[in-house]
Amino acid sequence: MAKRLGILTGGGDCPGLNPAVRGCVLQAARLGWECAGFLDGWKGLVEAQSIALRPEDVEDWINKGGTLLGSSRTNPFKREGGPELCRQNLRKLGLDALVAMGGEDTLGVAARLYREFGFPVVGVPKTMDNDLSATDFTFGFDTAATIAVDAAERLKDTGRSHHRAMVLEVMGRHAGWVALYTGLASGADFTVIPEKPVSIKAVARAVESAHRRKKHALVVASEAVELEGGDASQPLDEFGHNLLKQRGVGERLARAIEKETGIEARCAVIGHIQRGGPPTLFDRILATRVGVRAAQLADEKRFGVMVALKGNRIEEVSLEEATGKLKTVGAEWLELLRSVSIDSH
Ligand code: F6P
């Protein structure tokens, strides 16, 4: 009888999830496995909601955005009897292994299920935030940053036309990677990330100076930045994270810039636009590689691990190590930002 593999995608969707599922299903089929996809992340496993995933179901998923399996931020450890239901449902559906695709939260659940219940699980890293420390890149990030750079360049055109200061607010919950790459790749005049607190006055000075030189300025800001006088209290999700959507960092920065400098300022928040649409070439290839490797690891019964990109090699790390600490922007990147700015940051 064929062995059976369950696959789920949890947490915020991102481009690359469908190619990763496709890679996993196609490779699994070649190794003699049948696959089932759980609907809406861990919720699907807790509630035993799944669909069959045959090679012909996923063959055209290489360029599809979002996750066709659906996602949620459900945490089984926050549900009455949740972990036990996961175990029972895996058995009930006759599954021999599970591939969980997600970020720190989804993979944190996978790590706990493996540690506490010996769950036969393999992790696949995804997140537009790129903040998982055990892998050099997560798929979703390249597409998100590429979309943000495009947005920044469009804002620059309007800034130049109207001699304005333009502020672009990008996502990135705990880490400034998307803002950093966007700022660097669009030649922003100031990039504000949570790892390097700055005063509003410092941003305003840089904007003033850029405006003096060229009559427009671009600021890229991460949604997670703490601004002076800000309100950090927001509703939390099931994993205890702030829902950042109401903080309005970009808009507050634009108002403060206008107040400090007298330069007309506008803000654009691209939000979830960064998470939709077809994955870039980089994300399609990375997603395919990690999806394929996850199926191979399940076949080899190598559980409790996450697939990781190290340099240009696909390797494995333990789920414990993968979820132990977040990857944030370090000193060498801040130095690079400084190297390419006319005004000192
Ligand atoms: O973790 C990915 C991410 O897009 C963050 O950058 C952002 O803060 C969060 O998800 C938004 O979550 P939601 O889609 O639940 O609003």
List the helices and strands and how they pair.
Layout: E1 3-9, H1 17-30, E2 33-38, H2 42-46, E3 50-53, H3 55-58, H4 82-92, E4 97-102, H5 104-117, E5 121-125, H6 141-162, E6 165-170, H7 177-186, E7 190-192, H8 200-214, E8 217-222, H9 249-261, E9 265-269, H10 281-299, E10 305-310, E11 313-318, H11 319-324, H12 331-339
Parallel strand pairs: 1-2, 1-4, 4-5, 5-10, 6-8, 6-9, 7-8
Antiparallel strand pairs: 2-3, 10-11
Helix pairs in contact: 1-10, 6-7, 8-9
Bound molecules: 6-O-phosphono-beta-D-fructofuranose (F6P).
Short description, anyone?
By secondary structure, the protein is α/β, with parallel strands linked by helices. Helix content is 41%, strand content 17%.
Task: Report what the structure shows.
With 345 residues, the protein is an alpha/beta fold. It folds into 2 domains: 3-139 and 279-323, Rossmann fold (3-Layer(aba) Sandwich), CATH 3.40.50.450; 142-276, 3-Layer(aba) Sandwich (Rossmann fold). It is built from 12 helices and 11 strands. The protein has helices at 17-30, 42-46, 55-58, 82-92, 104-117, 141-162, 177-186, 200-214, 249-261, 281-299, 319-324, 331-339; strands at 3-9, 33-38, 50-53, 97-102, 121-125, 165-170, 190-192, 217-222, 265-269, 305-310, 313-318. Strand 7, helix 8 and strand 8 form a beta-alpha-beta unit. Helix 1 (17-30) packs parallel to helix 10, helix 6 packs across helix 7 (177-186) and helix 8 crosses helix 9 (249-261). The radius of gyration is 21 Å and the shape is elongated. The mean pLDDT is 95. The protein binds 6-O-phosphono-beta-D-fructofuranose (F6P). 6-O-phosphono-beta-D-fructofuranose (F6P) binds next to loops.
